[in-house]
Specification:
The strands form two sheets. A six-stranded mixed beta sheet has the order 3-6-5-4-7-8, with helices on both faces. Strands 1-2 form a two-stranded antiparallel sheet. The protein has one domain: Glutaredoxin (3-Layer(aba) Sandwich), CATH 3.40.30.10. The radius of gyration is 25 Å and the shape is globular. The chain is α/β, with parallel strands linked by helices and 184 residues long.
């Protein structure tokens, strides 16, 4: 049997089988790679295009149930504070039905996805504005909404809707959640 070995590689022979010698860093790298490959990758959150009719679809799918719809943007500093607050609420009340709609463009979907991943908002449904005529989308949501962010809508099971523009306070939102008995 002829054994050809690359000059940079060393081998040891046991019986008639040749094994490459692995140095400690190589062994550690192989072990780390095996562990990483065995852990399932966390799938990126699906982000749906928010177009004409999307808002009605969101509301119709939740008839008779309490839920929150939050409109936010990557460039809105209060929105980031609010997403952090919503993360705390979702962690404390995993049954809370939360819909997040980014008013950014579809071209910014990667940044939107990264922001949502950073805040790890659980099973919150995610959307991004996908119509260049944003005024039409806002008008479908609320004829009185001029585009100020963050903008949040609270829907009770009795079909009562409360709209709030600006930063929300944790205690007030938590009180609403408790009143709606959204905890399951």
């Amino acid at each position: 049997m002829q054994l050809i070995v690359h000059p940079c590689q060393s081998v040891f022979i046991r019986g008639s089988i040749a094994f490459p010698k692995m140095r400690l860093p190589g062994v550690l790298m192989a072990l780390c790679l095996a562990v990483l490959l065995s852990v399932p990758a966390q799938a990126a959150q699906e982000i749906k295009p928010f177009v004409r009719g999307s808002y009605q679809q969101i509301v119709a799918a939740r008839q008779g149930k309490p839920f929150i719809v939050n409109f936010w943007s990557l460039t809105c500093s209060y929105c980031m504070v609010e997403l952090a607050m919503l993360k705390k609420l979702i962690k404390k009340y995993p049954g809370l039905d939360l819909v997040l709609v980014s008013t950014d463009t579809p071209e910014e979907e990667k940044a939107v996805s990264a922001t949502l991943a950073k805040f790890s908002l659980g099973k919150a449904e995610a959307w991004v504005f996908a119509d260049s005529y944003t005024e039409r989308l806002r008008f479908e949501v609320d004829k009185k909404w001029q585009g100020e962010l963050p903008r949040t809508y609270f829907f009770s099971p009795k079909k009562e809707v409360t709209a709030i523009s600006g930063k929300l306070e944790y205690k007030e939102v938590e009180q609403w959640v408790k009143e709606q008995d959204a905890i399951q």
